[in-house]
Amino acid sequence: METPDQIRNRLLSRFPGAAVSLVSNPGPAAQHSLLLDAAHARAIATFLRDDPLLQLDLCSNVTGVDWPDREIVETTRTSTPDPAGGPAKVVEQKTKRLQPGCLEVVYHLYSVALLHGPVVLRLRTGNRSDQVTLPSLTPVWRACEFQEREVFDLFGVVFEDHPDLRRILMWDGFKDHPMRKDYVEPDDYEWEPTPHGDVLAKARKHYPAPAPAAAAKEEPKP
Amino acid sequence: MSFSDPSPLSAAPGASVRAVHDEFHGDLLEVSMGPHHPSTHGVFRMMVTLDGETVVKLKPVFGYLHRNHEKIGENTSYLASMPYTDRLDYLCSMTNNWAYALAVEKLAGQAVPERAEYLRVILAELTRLLNHTCLAGFLLQDCGASGTPLMYAFREREKILDLFESLSGSRMMCNYQRFGGCRVDAPAGWLEAARTLTDGYGRFLDEYETLLTGNEILMARTQGIGRLSAKLAVSAGVTGPLLRAAGVGYDLRKVDGYGFYPRFDFRVPLGAHGDTYDRYMVRVLEMRESIKILQQALRDIPAGPVMDPKAKLRGFRPKPGEVYSRIEGPKGEIGFHLISEGGPNPYRYRVRPPSLINLTILEDLCLGHSIADAVVILGSIDIVLGEVDR
Prior knowledge:
Chain A is of the alpha/beta class and 222 residues long. Chain A has helices at 4-14, 41-50, 144-155, 197-206, 212-218, and strands spanning 20-23, 33-36, 58-67, 70-80, 89-99, 102-111, 116-124, 133-135, 158-160. Chain B is of the alpha+beta class.
C-alpha cells in the first residue's frame, strides 16, 4: 500500500484546492493520519473508496477525540556572558500561549478488496462551541451511520447530511456530551445534590431551588 | 437520503413509509419490541412498524445498558481497564482481553512470549467455540424450539467455562490477559483437559448437526430469510461471520495475521446466499476450523514463561502515540483505538464494537419479512448488549 505521504501527494494533485496535511504518530505503531479540510472531505472520501489503487471500501472505525483549549507555557532562556569571566547569567522567560481546542473525528479505513490498511483520516471542527459542524461520511460508507451518531451523542459534533442524526446511547432529553473532557457529571438524578462545587452548580440547573416560603413549610417538625 | 450502493433490500434509510397515525392508513401498526423482551437478547429495543405481520420499518433503539465504558477507560489506568473489557461482550471475555492487550502492546511496542501467544490462540478459539455454540442454541430458541437445542449448547459451553475457571478463576469475567503475556500459566493438567475437550467437540458438533442442519423446520425458517448482499455488507462495516456468510472472504486471522495465526493451517468458510441459514452454517463450519486450530496449538505449545519479564503493569506509562488495533472476535472485528499522552491513563480509549456496527443492516435485512422472521434475523446477527451499549 502507498504510504500516507504518497496518498497525500496524490490527493493534492487530484484536489488542487484541498488542504491535506499529514499528522504523524510518534508511537511505535506509526499509524500516521491524514488531516482533511471539511470542505473537501466527502469528495476525498469518495475518491479513496473508489480509487483502484486504494479501494478503501471498509470504514472500520469512526471515533471522536476531544482536544480542549490548552495553555502552553514556552520557556525561552537567554544567557548573558559575565564580563568578569564568571559563569554566564541565564534568564528564563516564560510565555503563555493559548492553543485553541477542537473536536476531532477519526476514521480508520481498510480495503476488503485489496486487503490492506489502515488509512487514518481526521477531520477537525473549528472550535468546541459553535463551529462543530462537519460533513457526514455516511453517504460514502454506510458503516458510519451509527458511529457518527455516537460521536454526535457523546462529543457533540454535528454531521451535515447524516440521514438520521439523533442521540444513540444517551436519552433524547439529555443536554451535554459526556465524552468531552470538561464534562461534569450532574449529581444523582433522583437524589438530592451534594452541597458543594461544580456538581452543585450543575445540579441547581436540574433542580431549581424552591421558594423560601415553600421550603420553610416543608421543613419537618422535630 | 441515498446511500452509495442501493441494493434492492437496502432501501431502509430512505424507505418511504406511510405515516403511522394517518387516519387513511390506520392499518400500519407501530410496535415497540423490547427493551424487556425475551427474544431481543438483553435490553435491546426495536421500534417496528408493521403492515399486518410484515415489517415495513424498523428502528433499533440503544442505550439501556450504557455506562460510558470509554469514559471509565479514560479515567482509569491501562491495567484497570482490563477487567472492564470482560464486561463488553460477556460471552467472549478472552477475546476482548486479547484485543485490548494487543492494542496496548502495539501502543507501547511490547513483546509477548511464545507460550503466551499460543495460550491466547487456544483461549480465543475456545471462546469462538463457546460463542458459536451458544449462538446456534439461541437461534433455535428464537425459532421456537424452546429448551432442547439451547440446553445441548449450554452443556458444551459449561465444559469450556470450566476450563476458563480453572485457568483464570472465573467462568465468564476472566480478566486473564495482560500487556506482555498472560496473568498466570495454565495449571497442571489444564492442557490435557483442553485436548480432551477439543477432541470430543467434533462429536458434539456431529450430534448437533444431525439434529439441526438438515432440519426441515430450521431450513424453512431460515433459508432465503434476511439476505445480505456482499456489497452492502462491506459498505456497512459488517464484519465477522456475517460478512463471510455474505460471501466475502475477510477474516482478520488471515488478513492481519496477528498472534501466531499464520502458523496454523485452517480455512475460512464462506456463505453463498447471505441468508440466515448461511449465517448459521458459516458458524458451524468455523467451529470445525477452530477445532483444527486448537488441535495444532495444543500440540505445538512450547514450555516457557507466559509473561514478558520486562513488562510493567503497575505505573505503566506508554510513550505518546496512537494506535488502532483489531482482532477477529467471534462476533466480528473488535478493535481498540488508544491515544496516549504519556500519562498513566489513556487520553482516548475507544472500543470498536462489532455487535453495534453489525446492527447497521438490521433494518435492511428485516424489511419485507414477517415479525417472527425479524426475531430470527436478529438472533443470527449475534449481539451482546454489553458491547452494543457499552
